[in-house]
TrEMBL record, chain B:
SUPFAM superfamilies: P-loop containing nucleoside triphosphate hydrolases (SSF52540). This is Peptide ABC transporter ATP-binding protein. Residues 5-255 form the ABC transporter domain. Its main location: membrane. It comes from Sporolactobacillus inulinus CASD. Keywords: ATP-binding, Cell membrane, Membrane, Nucleotide-binding, Transport. The keyword Membrane applies.
């Protein structure tokens, strides 16, 4: 595990990132409100680590991930990659930066062009960035296919000829072609069967070690996130609720939401089934109309008056939490 | 507890342009009143097709070609459509993974909920409505009197699944089939729905067939479990035995490949190599042969049968390995006894 050292410089810095989508209505498409998908999110990512982002649907984890590679332009805030603000760099420079920033998507089928052979799909980034000749690119394709565990004679096949797990390997191979520094993994195993999930997770772990990669791993499955992450960010309704090392999050969660999330997860051990479970009622509120104060107060079992009025800031040094009444170690 | 359902070696085939494809082969299990069985397996293992076979909800090109499905005193495998119509929604009902696609978007919740109630229970319109409101309250829907006149799109995923459960349970079925009821939901909502299903099960003594790929859900809900692989049941036993003492190499592989939050930090996941064979191209012998770490010569040519491994407990597996193990055990046991005899003499 690569723990971030104090003196180490972050590879990527996210500062007060906001992404609002306008809600338009009527004939002249007046903007009547905003969906606050990501609302003031900040964190740093250090070289060689894996930052997990977890949360339920609509919490803004994917939007955050997409903003990190500038697939979304932020409404406000900054994303700094090695000190450069992705939103303000020139087109030319962004093109160069894209070789360092790659993304792997959830559904490997819809992210691969069905009319292209795998060999061509993989060579494309190299040729597009004019980093290799055709012959060199082919050699590189063979190399990368071997690294991700695909037989190189599959080069002439089309995406539909592969199983889900193999397609995800292709997605990973494509992301690796440019030897990136940072890979955003957006729910890379959620669409796969359990036995295949383990294959892909192990592959990602091995690649990280051998190629010295940095990951942002976005998922709703806590098990996978725990397995791969060094640190974890817990999000809810566009905001960061808690950020700490994986061990801290799982062993000493401070935010009630984290605690509830961990608790809601079914345990594959029937002897545990009669444990007291903290089940919270209600649904996640709409991000178009988030609650005032702490966004979690509508479902929080410990909510008090101040939670309904004032939004808590993210506080702490290594273990950050956004809560007026974080879970006290002594009490728990 | 009386026996409610006995599925005996059913085979479900689909007719396609390229000839018949067998999706489910020799699947057997039985279920008592009030009992919950989980069918677990990965996509394409035939768990959904098994449940659709019971309900006669297969596509037109699919049918049960062998075996029998005894429900109380009827054989559902050979039941007519008219007979099934009386059973579906009344004695057996079903909930699905995606509640939005299984609710009609142009009818109100009330219209859809009262349809079955009026049909099977002969209630008047007003009686059916008040009963429907009662059902909605039972599944924990707030403002049931207002929600009943809403359309499905107004509800969240968790609420829609609650409506589906209310609908499925309104005619007090003896058997509820739940096909991945929580897969599309967030974890906190999943916990709510599972809690609700447990409560309703305990109140009504309904038997449940729960289809899932999540071993966590299995551990929470099941009395017994059938693990399916490539259209067959490979292991069947009660839930405690399955988790404490799994026997089939596939079950073992599956258990070790789940990243779970209670796993130790440095534990590496054990992945099962390869992928599931396609239904058109099933291996002749054991279907897990290609991926099995213990594969023997015998597994390539011979088909293992689902057999009980110990007489006293109901634990069946479809694997030659245990037979060998048993022989080994018997041999060792005999040797030990022989040695003891020699010592005593």
């Amino acid at each position: 595990m690569n723990m971030p050292l104090d003196q180490e410089k972050p590879l990527l810095q996210v500062k007060h990132l906001k992404k609002y989508y306008p809600i338009k209505k009527g004939v002249i498409s007046r903007t009547v409100g905003y969906v606050k998908a990501v609302d003031d999110v900040s964190f740093d990512i250090y070289p060689g680590e894996t930052m997990g982002i977890v949360g339920e649907s609509g919490c803004g984890k994917s939007t955050t991930g997409r903003s990190l590679v500038r697939l979304e332009d932020p409404t406000a805030g900054q994303v700094l990659f090695q000190g450069k603000d992705l939103a303000t760099v020139s087109q030319k420079e962004m093109r160069k930066l894209r070789t360092d920033l790659q993304i792997i998507f959830q559904d490997p089928y819809s992210s691969l062009n069905p009319r292209k052979r795998i060999g061509d799909l993989l060579a494309e980034p190299l040729l597009a960035h004019k980093l290799a000749t055709k012959a060199e690119a082919e050699k590189k394709v063979n190399e990368i296919m071997e690294i991700v565990g695909l037989p190189k004679q599959y080069k002439n096949r089309y995406p539909h000829q592969f199983s889900g797990g193999q397609r995800q390997r292709i997605g990973i191979a494509r992301a690796l072609m440019l030897r990136p520094k940072l890979i955003i993994c957006d729910e890379p195993v959620s669409a796969l069967d359990v036995s295949i999930q383990a294959q892909v997770l192990n592959l990602l772990k091995d690649l990280q070690k051998s190629l010295n990669l940095t990951y942002v791993f976005i998922a709703h499955g806590l098990g996978a996130v725990k397995y791969i992450s060094d640190r974890i960010t817990v999000m809810y309704l566009g905001k960061v609720m808690e950020l700490a090392t994986t061990r801290e999050i799982f062993e000493h969660p401070k935010h009630p939401y984290t605690e509830i999330l961990l608790n809601a997860y079914p345990i594959p051990n029937p002897h545990e089934r009669n444990r007291t479970q903290m089940v919270i009622e209600g649904d996640v509120p709409s991000p178009a109309n988030p609650p005032k104060g702490c966004v979690f107060h509508t479902r929080c079992p410990f909510a008090k008056d101040i939670c309904r009025e004032k939004a808590p800031g993210l506080t702490g040094k290594d273990h950050l939490v956004a809560c007026h009444f974080p879970i006290d170690e002594g009490k728990a | 507890m009386g026996e409610l359902l006995k599925v005996d070696k059913i085979k479900t085939e689909f007719q396609t342009d390229k000839g018949p494809v067998t999706s489910v082969d020799e699947v057997s299990f039985d279920l008592k009143e009030g009992e919950t069985i989980c069918l677990v397996g990965e996509s394409g293992c035939g768990k959904s097709v098994t449940s659709l076979s019971i309900m006669h909800l297969l596509d037109r090109n699919g049918s049960v070609t062998e075996g029998s499905i005894r429900f109380e005193d009827k054989d559902l495998a050979h039941a007519s459509e008219a007979e099934m119509r009386k059973i579906r929604g009344n004695d057996i009902s079903m909930i699905f993974q995606e509640p939005m696609t299984s609710l009609n978007p142009v009818l109100t919740i009330g219209d859809q909920l009262t349809e079955g109630i009026r049909l099977h229970m002969n209630y008047s319109r007003a009686e059916a409505r008040s009963y429907a409101i009662e059902m909605l309250k039972k599944v924990g829907i707030p403002r049931a009197e207002g929600i009943i006149d809403e359309y499905p799109h107004k509800l969240s995923g968790g609420m829609r699944q609650r409506v589906m459960i209310a609908m499925a349970l309104s005619c007090k079925p003896k058997l509820l089939i739940a096909d991945e009821p929580t897969t599309a939901l967030d974890v906190t909502i999943q916990a709510q729905i599972l809690k609700l299903m447990k409560k309703l099960r305990d109140e009504s003594n309904t038997a449940i067939i729960l289809i899932t790929h999540d071993l966590g859900v299995v551990a929470e809900m099941a009395d017994k479990v059938a693990v399916m692989y490539a259209g067959q049941v490979v292991e069947e036993t009660d839930v405690y035995t399955l988790f404490d003492n799994p026997k089939h190499p596939y079950t073992l592989g599956l258990m070790k490949s789940i990243p779970h939050i209670t796993n130790p930090d440095d534990m590496r996941l054990n992945s099962i190599p390869g992928s599931v064979p396609s239904a058109r191209n099933m291996p002749k012998g054991c279907r897990f042969y290609d991926r099995c770490p213990h594969a023997m010569k015998r597994c390539l040519a011979e088909k293992p049968e689902l057999k009980p491994i110990e007489d006293k407990q109901a634990h069946s597996i479809r694997c030659f390995l245990y037979e060998e193990e048993e022989k080994d055990y018997e041999k060792k046991h005999a040797e030990k006894q022989h040695a003891e005899k020699e010592v005593s003499s």
